[in-house]
């Protein structure tokens, strides 16, 4: 199929983009990498009056650090998270996350902000941002505001942004010491996950001070934090022995719906298995890092 007719705009600055969004509101769609929007246009699942192509806005293509916070411009291509030296040092958790996204051509075209604003509940980046306690900077006619990743995703393909607003930056606090795991199940490499889990454990200054983020994806209408599983990790510590109990707690209250790809029971079982594997991955890193520290070494890798 072909898209319905639309007008085309290509602003070169954020100010011009916000003017276009203010003028057209719901009738405008932003075009960045096009990995989500173009299929919707071609199938006429969305028929905007205006396409606002933001690819000329080089001001939103960056990765930098500000006072211990990693700042990622919304138009940064996803593949750059795999290769950037700052990400490798401060947020290496993002590198295995990005490798799970589609295929290399998709990661070279797709943008960080585009994936987050599209808010597919089976996508990896939204779940990872919740696990990393990211904050999103949103610009609009009234100025800028910050929204937590947890609050940003409000439902299926729905986020906390007005039609005249744009996601401009992702801000991630870089933990001093952390371990992690991310696992997903898809029928083929590059497909959306039928179920997945992201676990990030901040080790803190001492073993007793760790805190955890446990996030499910592909099993609801948005990334799902699991506070009960996080509390279990905080109370009992991280070890391989806790993986089974934690996985059971993570899906205890999970109400996922079945579809043509997986029944509710199958998806629930997949979620349990993905949590278990992600926790085991984090536990192996945890034990390795504390063993190194006990020997007087300090090369534990931050997340």
Question: How would you explain this protein's 3D organization?
Answer:
By secondary structure, this protein is an alpha+beta fold. It has three domains: 7-53, Uridine Diphospho-n-acetylenolpyruvylglucosamine Reductase, domain 2; 58-173, Uridine Diphospho-n-acetylenolpyruvylglucosamine Reductase, domain 3 (2-Layer Sandwich), CATH 3.30.465.10; 178-294, 2-Layer Sandwich (Enolase-like, domain 1), CATH 3.30.390. The chain is built from twelve helices and 14 strands. The termini are far apart.
The CATH C-level class name of the largest domain: Alpha Beta
Count, helices: 12
Report the portion of residues in β strands. 15-25%
Query: Number of DSSP strands?
Result: 14
Principal-axes geometry comes out as: globular
Mean pLDDT: 92
How far apart, in Å, are the first and last alpha carbons? 43 Å
Count of domain modules: 3
Largest sheet: 5 strands, antiparallel
Low-confidence stretches: 292-303
Radius of gyration, in angstroms, nearest whole number? 20 Å
| CATH topology grouping of the largest domain | Enolase-like, domain 1
| Strand order, largest beta sheet | 4-5-10-6-7
Binned, the helix content reads 25-40%
CATH superfamily of the largest domain: CO dehydrogenase flavoprotein, C-terminal domain
- Helix-strand string: EHEHEEEHHHHHHEEHEEEEEEEHHH
The CATH architecture term of the largest domain is 2-Layer Sandwich
Structural class by secondary-structure content: alpha+beta
Keywords: FAD, Flavoprotein, Oxidoreductase
Pfam families: CO_deh_flav_C, FAD_binding_5
InterPro entries: CO_DH_flav_C, CO_DH_flav_C_dom_sf, Diverse_Substr_Oxidored, FAD-bd_PCMH, FAD-bd_PCMH-like_sf, FAD-bd_PCMH_sub1, FAD-bd_PCMH_sub2, Mopterin_DH_FAD-bd
GO molecular function: FAD binding; oxidoreductase activity
């Amino acid at each position: 199929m072909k898209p319905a007719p639309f007008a085309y705009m290509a602003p070169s600055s954020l100010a011009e983009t916000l003017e276009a969004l203010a003028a057209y509101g719901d009738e405008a769609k932003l075009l960045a990498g096009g990995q989500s929007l173009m299929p919707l246009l071609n199938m006429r699942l969305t028929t905007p009056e205006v396409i606002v192509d933001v690819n000329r806005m080089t001001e939103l293509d960056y990765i930098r650090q500000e006072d211990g916070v990693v700042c990622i411009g919304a138009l940064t291509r996803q593949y750059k998270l795999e290769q950037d030296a700052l990400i490798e040092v401060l947020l290496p958790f993002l590198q295995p996350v990005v490798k799970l996204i589609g295929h290399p051509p998709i990661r070279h075209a797709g943008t960080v902000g585009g994936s987050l604003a599209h808010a597919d509940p089976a996508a990896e980046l939204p779940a990872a941002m919740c696990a990393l306690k990211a904050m999103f900077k949103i610009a609009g006619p009234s100025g800028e505001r910050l929204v937590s990743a947890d609050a940003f995703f409000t439902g299926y393909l729905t986020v906390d942004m007005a039609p005249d607003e744009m996601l401009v930056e992702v801000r991630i606090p870089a933990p001093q010491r952390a371990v992690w795991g991310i696992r997903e199940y898809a029928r083929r490499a590059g497909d959306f996950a039928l179920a997945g889990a992201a676990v990030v454990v901040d080790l803190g200054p001492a073993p007793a001070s760790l805190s955890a983020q446990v996030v499910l994806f592909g099993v609801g209408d948005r990334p799902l934090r699991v506070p009960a599983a996080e509390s279990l990790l905080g109370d009992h510590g991280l070890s391989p022995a806790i993986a089974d109990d934690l996985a059971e707690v993570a899906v205890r209250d999970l109400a996922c719906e079945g579809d043509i790809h997986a029944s509710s029971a199958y998806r629930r079982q997949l979620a349990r298995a993905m949590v278990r594997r992600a926790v085991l991955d984090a536990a192996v890193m945890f034990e390795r890092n504390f063993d190194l520290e006990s020997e007087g070494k300090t090369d534990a890798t931050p997340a």
